[in-house]
Amino acid sequence: MYQNAVGQMDGTYGATGNMSHAIYGLDDYAAQKLTFLEGEPDWNRWRAGEGVFITPAVLWGGKYCLYHPGDTMSVDLTEMVDGAAYNWDAETDRTVRTYEVLAVVELPSAFGSGISMGSGTHIILPEAEYLKYVNEDARLPMMTVFDVDDGHMAETEAFVRNYTESVDPTMDYRSRITLEEEYRGLIRMFTLVGGALCGLLALIGILNFINSLITSVLTRRQEIAMLQAVGMTGRQVKWMMIIEGLGYAELGISLALVLGAVVNVTLLQAVTADMFAFTVRFTLMPILLVIPPLLAVSALVPWLCCRKMTGMAIVERLRSAE
Length: 322
Known about the structure:
The chain is elongated and about 100 Å long. It has two domains: 2-145, no CATH class; 180-321, no CATH class. Helix 6 runs parallel beside helix 9, helix 7 packs antiparallel against helix 10 and helix 8 (234-271) runs antiparallel to helix 9 (285-310). The protein has helices at residues 28-31, 43-47, 83-86, 127-131, 153-167, 176-219, 221-229, 234-271, 285-310, 314-321; strands spanning 2-4, 8-13, 16-26, 35-38, 51-54, 57-59, 62-64, 72-76, 96-106, 121-126. By secondary structure, the protein is α+β, with helices and mostly antiparallel strands.
């Protein structure tokens, strides 16, 4: 597989008339890994160089299909051409080819050049068409892709690592294992920052919850005193307040479950849509972990407040309320 991330592509989209593009030359095996989004693969015309496959363009933070099957596009291949091999001057000579768009495809992330392209699209040529513009004897921007099953991943990783370190140190490689190592640090950062933020918010929420329960008990001293005056026991008062606190906790847990589910299927999915290295997994474990302490606080705070308050005489509490 060959790749060259240079050039301009003419088009009639929006206010501009050109945009950056990356050109790929794929052999048949690599081309079979493409995911077709629009159109059917016309392999004969593609191999003959009569048309190209193109990916959706990355523009303004989103992906847009600027071309569709059947459209024609002009591609400036000047910067791809090996001028020394073809004895021409890139400043004065231009190589512009017109192709028909055969299909809109999605390029596997493993085929990426490793160069971040903020905007633009990928044009996919057959290997033979690509090599028409690049001298085969020159140093080609070539990539070999290994399609390895999970059972042989470790063995292949060891072979490639040894080859690039001992046999040919000029070569480099990327694999699932190297990507996992690369992103493990990012995951730790998200875990640390997210955990600290969640802990801070949890502390604020619990303190606010405790304050609300205490305020509720204190503002109802006269009401509770009157209930005890007509026969309600201190035990009944405590259970009434504990059940009320547990009701608040149940309401908070229910809202957390609903809002958490909504955020997971909307905001989180949108944020991670273009992050190929991340997999979204919806889990209730964090909420399940905070339920026991939340229920304990919801029961303990009203019980302590009522215990202290019911220790005073009913008449004294009625007078203090007045």
